[in-house]
């Protein structure tokens, strides 16, 4: 399986770690710590409190929420 097979929100994880300097698990935990909350409220938290771009914040939130439903 090549790296190109990674699709969806997880495909952003390497660039998020590189850009913001923290492991993806830390970002996911920040989101989990705020649950229950609305998707866009969580995205706004990452953007406003941590300076994350919208696409990256959305990818982390979408991934965490998809795991919570499972």
UniProtKB/TrEMBL annotation:
One Pfam match, by short name? DUF4287
Q: Which domain of life is it from?
A: Bacteria
Name the chain's protein. DUF4287 domain-containing protein
Species in which this protein is naturally found: Methylobacterium frigidaeris
